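Lab notebook, bench 4. Still working through the backlog of constructs that have no structural model yet. Next entry is a single chain of 217 residues. Request: give me the C-alpha cells for it.
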Amino acid sequence: MSLAVGLLGGTFDPVHEGHLHAATCVRSALGLPRVALLPCAVPPHKPEGLVASDDDRLAMLRLAVADRHGLELCTWEVDRGGRHYTIDTLRALRRAHGWDPVFVVGMDALADLASWREPDRLLAEFDLVAVDRPGRTIEEAAARIAGLGATRVRAWDGSADVGRGGRVFHLGIPPRDVSASEIRRRCAAGEPLDDLVPPAVARYIRERKLYRLEAAR
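Model written out:
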C-alpha cells in the first residue's frame, strides 16, 4: 500500500525557519503523516558547490527537526553522493519505500521548472505543492510552466487525493522572508541570527564557526 509523503528538497546550507515553516504548513494543510527534508549532495543548479560540509548540513537538519512533529530527515541523496536529479530521486524513493512522493517547491523553483531534468515527466508522475515565496506570484509561475504538457496549477482546497501525480497545487501560506544566503552573510559579519534558524542550529553554527568566510566568496 502506497503512502503519500511530502518531500522538501534543497541545499539546506543552512536549514532555516523558512524551510521548517513551509514543511509544517504543507504537512498540516494536506494531512500528510510526515514531510521529509531531502538535502542534496551536489546541487545540479549550483555549480559553485556548497559552503558547509555534508556532515554539518545533516547535523543542523537533525537538530532542526528533532522537536518538530511530523518532520524528518531523508539522507538518500547525501548517502549516495554525487549529482542527483529530482525526478530520479522521487522515482527511487517510490520504488524503495512504496511512497507516493509529494514534492514541495517554492514559487521561485516552480517558475524555473522548465530547466529541470525531464520536467514534463516530473509533472506527469508526481504531485507538486507550490508555496509562496517573496517576490514571486502564482500567476507568473503558472505561466512559465504552461507549456509542460497539460499541467495546470490549482489552489489547494483540501479535497484532492494527494499523491497520485499529475497536478500542481498552490498552497497559500504567509512566506517567511529568510534565505540561507542572508544567514551566511550575517555569520560572516558577526551579526546575530535572531529567529532565522532554530536556537540549536544557531548554537551549532556558532560553535563550529560555520560561514565565517562567506563575505569573501
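Notes after review: The mean pLDDT is 90. The longest strand covers residues 3-10. Flag for follow-up if needed.
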